[in-house]
Amino acid sequence: MRSGRQCSRSACRRPAVATLTYVYQDSTAVLGPLAQLAEPHSYDLCSEHASGLTAPRGWEVVRVTPEFVPTGPTSDDLLALADAVREAGRVRTPVAVEPAGTEVARRGHLRVLRGEGG
Questions:
Q1: Is residue 2 within 8 Å of 71, Cβ to Cβ?
Q2: Domain edges within the chain
Q3: Please, which residues bridge with residue 97 across strands?
Q4: What distance in Å separates the CA atoms of residue 43 and residue 90, rounded to the nearest whole number?
Q5: Rounded Cα gap, residues 17 and 14, in angstroms
Q6: Are 34 and 16 in contact (CB under 8 A)?
Q7: Which of 50, 77, 82, 114 is the most exposed place for a label (fewest CB within 10 A)?
Q8: 22: Cβ–Cβ under 8 A, 6 or more apart, which residues?
């Protein structure tokens, strides 16, 4: 499904499509697909800011994929949503609950009674 997250750059309202993280020990900026969850030490970027990213002198930029484009819902997402709507709209028949001590089954001369807590 489409992410509700926006680009981390100030005044940018475009949807985020990539996540930027820094590996300070290696002087590397890693730009990859949008992470599932927002992390406090990473930055979400729109496609424009992701494609124009540069690193400070002496740093390397590692791009996991060559380009980042916004993605919409997949067919799996749409099928899952349709299944959820179908399930929510199903008519449910109430289950009859016998009171405690009610005979539930009989086998020969033995009877099965529903006890407390069902």
A1: yes
A2: 1-118
A3: none
A4: 42
A5: 9
A6: yes
A7: 82
A8: 28, 29, 30, 41
Other beta carbons within 10 Å of 8:
16
Q: For residue 1, what pLDDT band results from cuts at 50, 70 and 90? A: very low
Q: Which of 2-11, 37-46, 50-59, 98-107 has the lowest mean pLDDT?
A: 98-107
3-class state of residue 75 by DSSP: helix
d(CA 79, CA 105): 42
Residues whose CB is less than 8 angstroms from the CB of residue 58 and which lie 6 or more positions away in sequence, other chains included: 27
CA distance 31 to 54: 11
Rounded distance, CA 83 to CA 9, Å?
A: 37
51 phi and psi, to 5 degrees?
A: -75, -30
- Torsion over CA: 63, 64, 66, 72 (sign): negative
Nearest partner of 63 among 17, 7, 20, 3, judged by Cα: 20
Chain segment 57-87, per-residue pLDDT in tens: 999 999 988 777 666 667 777 788 888 888 8
Q: Where are the beta strands (DSSP E) in the chain?
A: 18-23, 28-33, 42-45, 60-63, 103-107, 110-113
